[in-house]
Amino acid sequence: MFENPAHRAGPCDGDHRIKVVAFGSYHSGKTSFIRCIDPDPITTEVKSGNGTTTVAFDLAIKEHRGFRLYVYGTPGQERFDVAREVVSFGLHAGVVVVDSTRGMTNFEKLILSELRKHGIPCVVAANKQDLPGASLDKVRADAGGFCEVYPVSARTGEGVGTVLDRLVDLVAR
């Protein structure tokens, strides 16, 4: 899925742009995470039985620490592999958004494995830390020590800035 090694071309391709792609299972909080970054993002949501769902991508654009971040949120249903592949082309870094009340799904573990396999800098955002039953320790255990895990609440915005800081550090080094 991650064919274009843009992250190896140097940080931000010399123009201080960083492309980050947010992955995660259905209802992990990717769109809410995107809205924390940019309150008026580009979204492709449709109504579903549980509210709304992303069917192509979300896009937040934000100036952060001297870089222009383009953070894309991908659909969480596995049937949208093609959309994820298109959106992921040329990414510099990835973030796997996990609903920490349920732990990492097999799908999220697969995405994390693919990011690692291709040498793409990534972090895990253990989302929904503001909810009862959230377990940062479970998400860390599920990630298997292969990636840094950060506590986040996309509802309140807590921890999102820390994730962005770390992604910039990983790409700009």
Automatic annotation (TrEMBL):
Annotated InterPro entries: Gliding_Motility_GTPase, P-loop_NTPase, T_Tr_GTP-bd_dom
Domain of life: Archaea
Gene3D superfamilies: P-loop containing nucleotide triphosphate hydrolases
Record-annotated Tr-type G domain positions: 64-171
GO MF annotation list: GTP binding; GTPase activity
CDD domains given in the database record: Ras_like_GTPase (cd00882)
Name of the protein in question: GTPase
